[in-house]
Amino acid sequence: QVQLVESGGGLVQPGGSLRLSCAANGFTFSFYPMSWYRQAPGKERELVASIDSAGRTTRYADSVQGRFTISRDNAKKMLYLQMNSLKPEDTAVYYCTTRTNWGQGTQVTVSS
Description:
Layout: E1 3-7, E2 10-12, E3 18-25, E4 34-39, E5 46-51, E6 58-60, E7 68-73, E8 78-83, E9 92-97, E10 106-110
Parallel strand pairs: 2-10
Antiparallel strand pairs: 1-3, 3-8, 4-5, 4-9, 5-6, 7-8, 9-10
């Protein structure tokens, strides 16, 4: 059974940082490209960042380029999203995904 469990969300002030984590189980993590998506209230779910199976190639949405970093540890079956210089418009539920399977999401709120 595939499981993706996100953690690390919370309330942070503008300009602050958070690191999201995603623990993967039930599949061969190292075989799969992984992505982070987010969904803000009233908006469609959007791709934030993606990483290939080996962790060598990454892609970012223009809105987070230069502020967010996606990474993975295949030995630990973990996916990460380091988020710096957070803005109120980054407020959303963030999801870890293989694009077939999705986690339950973790809330990130950027507010003063």
